[in-house]
């Protein structure tokens, strides 16, 4: 896919730390803890306004996994906060 004028400043970089730790067991092109992941977005405009972003599928999958990991982390922290003053249960 080619770039249009709406992609000024790209390629973009993000950090996908939780995905890059290899928890999924999948091999991603983006290896390394805290390594930046290069995104290659293609911006589609409609009536002169940015309307859609198209990413390569592997980049989308890495982002989706990172978002899921982030949601899991938020849930874990919320539950940890709730149970802060409750007695522990021995194993």
Any overview of this molecule?
Helix content is 33%, strand content 21%. It is built from two helices and four strands, in the order βαβββα. It has a two-stranded antiparallel ribbon. A two-stranded antiparallel ribbon has the order 3-4. A hairpin with a 2-residue loop joins β3 (42-46) and β4 (49-54).
List the helices and strands and how they pair.
Elements: E1 12-15, H1 17-20, E2 36-39, E3 42-46, E4 49-54, H2 57-82
Antiparallel strand pairs: 1-2, 3-4
- Give the total of beta strands: 4
Distance between the termini: 55 Å
Structural classification: alpha+beta
Strand % is 15-25%
Strand order of the largest sheet: 1-2
Biggest sheet record = 2 strands, antiparallel
What's the gyration radius in Å?
A: 18 Å
H/E element string? EHEEEH
Instruction: List segments where confidence is low: pLDDT < 50 over at least 5 consecutive residues.
Output: 1-9, 15-33
- Count of helical stretches: 2
Helix content: 25-40%
Oligomer: single chain
Rounded average pLDDT: 74
| General form | elongated
């Amino acid at each position: 896919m080619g770039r249009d004028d709406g992609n000024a400043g790209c390629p973009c970089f993000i950090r996908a730390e939780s995905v890059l730790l290899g928890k999924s067991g999948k091999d991603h092109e983006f290896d390394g803890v805290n390594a930046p992941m290069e995104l290659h977005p293609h911006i589609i405009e409609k009536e002169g306004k940015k309307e859609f972003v198209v990413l390569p599928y592997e980049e989308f999958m890495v982002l989706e996994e990172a978002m899921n990991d982030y949601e899991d982390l938020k849930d874990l922290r919320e539950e940890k906060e709730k149970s802060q003053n409750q007695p522990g249960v021995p194993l």
